[in-house]
Structure to design on (288 residues):
């Protein structure tokens, strides 16, 4: 979901559709809640990262990392994007993700609202929705394969002209396969349910990325395809990014991309900075 404004705001006027959406919302929300409660019990897989390894972020592309943050670590990811599309130019920021490793192979995440500021054109300005999510990693399968499950809930905290008014549950399956060093492939399949926009349900969001590391653990360059498929014309983009890590706890990144059809952004350019604090509880509560 590269921007919340990628979707048209279509009100739900049919009462039966509203009832179906409400029931689906409560069912999906129950799954999200249960996953948050029980995932720590299930997440006992081997192969998850610890704080001796280098920072690995979800941003700047669409594919969520299949690796969770280390236990006890707090990771904050930030970025700003310049968007051009459909007759408008806008700045989107701060694109903040807060991730905390609460258990072995398990993390909680908060997605802060972005502010869309339109510089030229008729697109509205305002805040996007926020979201809460949990991710647990199934560990390393045969040492080369990574797979995780993300359950999340979009919260209607933003401007209705930007993000609508619904509570939007979604699920993601990010994966990664290490090829011949230094190459890897990754991707994600997402399922999204919009409680306020029945015409968009269900929405599927597949991604696929090819990456190559360089300079050891310091650099990564990646090309990615991402799509949004519902009952209308799909939105599709191609993007690429470069990540540079001056040390194991910090990362700067640069991204650029363009749309593949008329319902997608024309082009965009973004920059970001992310960092990780390890053993947070030990620093906050001495002797913990």
């Amino acid at each position: 979901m590269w921007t919340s404004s990628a979707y048209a705001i279509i009100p739900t006027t049919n009462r039966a559709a509203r009832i179906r959406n409400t029931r689906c919302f409560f069912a999906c929300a129950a799954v999200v809640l249960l996953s948050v409660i029980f995932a720590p019990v299930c997440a006992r897989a081997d192969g998850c990262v610890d704080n001796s390894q280098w920072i690995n972020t979800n941003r700047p592309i669409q594919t969520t990392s299949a690796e969770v943050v280390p236990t006890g670590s707090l990771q904050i990811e930030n970025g700003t994007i310049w968007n051009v599309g459909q007759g408008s130019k806008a700045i989107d920021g701060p694109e903040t993700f807060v991730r905390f490793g609460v258990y072995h192979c398990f993390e909680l995440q908060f997605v802060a609202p972005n502010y869309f500021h339109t510089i030229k054109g008729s697109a509205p300005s305002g805040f996007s929705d926020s979201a809460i999510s949990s991710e647990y990693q199934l560990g390393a399968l045969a040492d080369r394969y990574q797979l995780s499950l993300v359950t999340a809930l979009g919260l209607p905290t933003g401007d209705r002209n930007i993000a609508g008014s619904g509570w939007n549950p979604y699920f993601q399956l990010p994966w990664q396969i290490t090829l011949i060093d230094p190459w890897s492939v990754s991707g994600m399949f997402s399922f999204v349910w919009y409680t306020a926009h029945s015409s968009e349900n269900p929405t599927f969001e597949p991604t696929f990325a090819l990456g190559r590391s360089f300079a050891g653990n310091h650099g990564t360059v990646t090309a990615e395809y991402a799509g949004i498929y519902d009952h209308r014309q799909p939105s599709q983009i191609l993007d690429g990014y470069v990540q540079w890590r001056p040390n194991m706890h910090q990362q700067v990144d640069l991204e650029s991309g363009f749309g593949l059809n008329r319902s997608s952004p024309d082009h965009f350019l973004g920059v970001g900075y992310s960092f990780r604090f390890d053993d947070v509880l030990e620093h906050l509560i001495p002797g913990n």
